[in-house]
Amino acid sequence: MSNTPILRHRTVSVQVGNITVGGDAPVVVQSMTNTDTADAIRTAAQCFELARAGSELVRITVNSLEAAQAVPDIRARLDKMGCDVPLIGDFHFNGHKLLTAVPECAQALAKYRINPGNVGRGKKRDEQFARMIEFAVRYDKPVRIGVNWGSLDQELLAKMLDDNSKLAKPLELEEVMHEALLESALSSAAKAEEYGLPHDHIILSCKLSDVQGLVRAYRDMSKRCDYPLHLGLTEAGMGSKGIVYSTAALSILLQEGIGDTIRISLTPEPHAKREKEVIVGQEILQALGLRSFTPQVVACPGCGRTSSDYFQRLAEQIQGWLREQMPVWKDQYPGVESMSVAVMGCVVNGPGESKHANIGISLPGSGETPVAPVYEDGQKTVTLKGDSIAQEFQALVETYVQKTYG
Length: 406
What we know:
- This protein is an alpha/beta fold.
- It has helices spanning about 40-55, 65-80, 95-100, 105-110, 120-140, 155-165, 175-195, 210-225, 240-255, 275-285, 310-330, 350-355, 390-405; strands at about 15, 20, 30, 55-60, 85-90, 110-115, 145-150, 200-205, 230, 235-240, 260, 265, 295-300, 340-345, 360, 370-375, 380-385.
- It is built from 13 helices and 17 strands.
- The longest helix is centred in the C-terminal third of the chain and has 23 residues, at about 310-330.
- About 45% of the residues are buried.
């Protein structure tokens, strides 16, 4: 962890189930399911897997009567599995009707997400927004007012464009849209408070899919309010693009102390597990020194000295194994999440990196003596050789964890 802590933008704290967002609480990692919420069995199973991977809040789509009716069942199934992860209901267009029809859904959820651009049109907009806030007040639930530039309140934007056209020096369209995003979030929060929702029950988000636009929006938002801020680059994309863009945007803001909870909106590969977005979110926070979630493996990139892929396979094996252990280790071995493990591929940087890690191994490169020294807390403890180096090193890591953090 860094010796120079990042100073957080001061926000109020909001309680979401058993998780605190904002205030002095650590930045919270959350995720969202992609199952049909009406399928309570599959949705509960995915919520469980996301929570097990480290998602501290899980959002589910509530878009139909069947989905709303399934929410209490999903909550009950998770409770039976010993999983207390808070559930967030994601509402668009018909949330006021669903909460009215299924009050059990309103009660089972830990938080509601409302998009001001998708609440309604004209007079109905305020009525339907007020109806949803009424349920939040009744059941003492916090609300995230989540503005998205892909579904910006068109009536508000039209009014602001009209007002802008009357100025002596009209602003560029991009400037008007920027102000419309902020105004939509802040004015909706003010209305929610007028309708009785406490100040400390509101979280705001202002999502874009453009990195620089997102950074600017949240910088300005943080200056204009003290609500906790939910960070996320919307529609980030697939694979390395989604990861890189999300990391670029969120790292700038988090380094500036802006942001209280994050979600990485990755498009998963077909049939891929949903947990990847959780892991990326954790790794961003861990890389910045804001939190620790799982021991990190330091490994070299490989070069002409490392013609064998042995060290790569061992690094991947150890990293996967460490992550698999964390659901149990985090309770048994406090502090293990900050441990570093080095798996190096040759003598150039191998011994040095291994000494700097809590425990490390320097594997032989091309033409080097076929032995692998192991270092623990800077001291060489043993030299491994033969065909079972991987198994022996993993056993040494497990022993180190037990004696150091047990």
